[in-house]
Design goal:
Layout (H helix, E strand, L loop, with lengths): L3 E3 L2 H7 L6 E5 L2 E5 L29 E9 L11 E5 L17 E5 L5 E7 L5 E2 L2 E2 L4 E6 L6 E7 L20 E2 L2 E2 L6 E4 L2 E2 L4
Parallel strand pairs: 4-14, 4-15, 11-12
Antiparallel strand pairs: 1-3, 2-3, 4-7, 5-6, 5-10, 8-9, 10-11, 13-14
The structure holds fe (ii) ion (FE2).
């Protein structure tokens, strides 16, 4: 695993809100691993989903903007043209595994600042054996020179996280995200910054 060193305290505060797995202090230097951790692919990935921002057409549920920036392995350089793919179930816990509409599935390419965004709905839940998986959104992120990331995000306060074999892992803890009020209109947002490893 790559280990990054941060000389200045100011650098640390710039990243304190991001997806660090680990930060420690050695003398005057902070050291941390910023790479976003992997999660299981699951059985429902489909390649070639449409490139689109808005996934909400005809969908029930709470609309949320899911957004963030993709960075390279130095933890600071935004990656443009990184491919961000997401897929999720609907509020009834169903994935669209067949239709040409690719419902609740999309791709997006990051801009010059590494930014991506999707307008979607909060996912429901489905059973894994006798237990519900916590609500989650699947990610696959690829960029030239970086290792493919396959991951999932979860949401703070979800009572099904503790009993889920994947969401309860230590490495998932920085992927359990707050759903925040974005503006004065009651719009919801989830921010997920992504740090890729070097290939
Ligand atoms: Fe899933």
């Amino acid at each position: 695993m790559n280990r990054k060193k941060f000389i200045k305290t100011g650098m640390l505060s710039a990243f304190a809100v991001s997806a660090f797995g680990f930060v420690s202090k050695k003398g005057d230097e902070f050291e941390g691993d910023c790479e976003t951790t992997n999660d299981i692919l699951g059985p429902f990935y489909r390649p070639d989903a449409p490139v689109r921002y808005d996934l909400t057409e005809g969908k029930k549920g709470s609309v949320v903007e899911l957004k963030g920036q993709v960075y390279g392995s130095d933890c600071t350089t935004p990656l443009k043209n990184a491919l961000v793919e997401i897929w999720q179930c609907d509020t009834e816990g169903r994935y669209d595994n067949e239709s040409k509409a690719f419902q609740l599935r999309a791709r997006w390419f990051t801009d010059a600042e590494g930014k991506y965004a999707f307008k979607t709905v909060l996912p429901g839940k489905y059973l894994n054996g006798r237990l519900y998986r916590p609500a989650h959104i699947h990610f696959r992120v690829t960029a030239p020179g970086s290792k493919e990331l396959i991951s999932q995000i979860y949401f703070e306060g979800d009572p099904h996280i503790d009993e889920d074999p994947w969401a309860s892992k230590k490495e998932a803890q920085h992927r359990i995200l707050p759903i925040s009020l974005e503006d004065t209109k009651g719009n919801l947002a989830v921010n997920f910054d992504i740090y890729l490893r070097e290939a």
